[in-house]
Amino acid sequence: MHALFQAAALHAFPNPERIGCPGRTILEEIAGLPWPSQHPAYEHVKTCSPCLREMLELRAARVRASKKAIQRRVLWLAGLAAALLLCALGLFLLRGRKPSFEELARAAVAHGSGNLSADPFIAVVDYQALNVERGHQPAASGEVMLARSTRGIWILLGPASSSGQYVIELRNPKLGNVSAQYAGTASKPAKSAADFPVILRANVDLSRVPSGRYILAWDRTGSPDWDYEAVRVK
Ligand SMILES: [Zn+2]
Q: Both 136 and 224 in a single domain?
């Protein structure tokens, strides 16, 4: 309906008795149509000021409601995007962050079998379980598999073991000669309980150690009592 005609129609057809008016349900139907003139009851509405007014108000209310729905959807999507961004940021920070010695030590002890987070180059040899490693299956023989990419060996010592400087060696099991030697440090996390293991850590480089079986031997510097474990460099 032309705007001018509509403005006139709003006053031109007073119908105080509401004679022939279709009622609110029909008016809502008409208000919901993209082309109200297609509705059979529109013939009445366009010549009844109160019906026309009511129908126009219903239309306006619908427009407001759909605008609000769109706003809500936009807000919801913005919230979702923000949440996803936070998740991504969190993951990024977690990946970028190296766990502390305390965290790794607790994880090692809790798992009893390595499966340590973060650094893929840390292999953990559990002194109790003896076949513990991150990311690699122990061999059927119970040997600890040391991948060539291993850059760190952790050995969980008993809680009463001495802290301090250690020597770690890879020895040929037949000849007994030392194939590689590394310096290690044993300590407990600062806030650990008395029965928490002492953890011997050494940075190692196995890139030039030939594949095969070895004896992993470790000893506190200056002590004659070596400990041994069978390992396989892969
Ligand atoms: Zn009417």
A: yes
For ligand 1, the distance from its centroid to the CA atom of residue 52, given in whole angstroms, is: 7
**pLDDT tens-digit map of 52-90:** 999 999 999 999 999 999 999 999 999 999 999 999 888
pTM for the structure as a whole: 0.51
User: How far does the centroid of ligand 1 lie from the alpha carbon of residue 53, in Å?
Assistant: 9
Among candidate residues 76, 94, 112, the one where a domain is terminated: 94
Judge residue 45's burial from the number of C-beta atoms within 10 Å of its C-beta, 0-12 exposed, 13-18 middle, 19 or more buried. Answer: buried
Q: Tell me, yes or no, whether 29 and 81 share the same domain.
A: yes
Expressed as residue numbers, the domain containing 154 is 101-233
| Residues surrounding ion ligand 1 at CB below 5 Å | 21, 48, 51
In angstroms, the Cα distances linking 45 to 5, 35, 56, 61 are 13, 13, 10, 18
Q: From ligand 1's centre to the CA of 66, what distance in Å?
A: 26
Q: Are 15 and 113 part of one and the same domain?
A: no
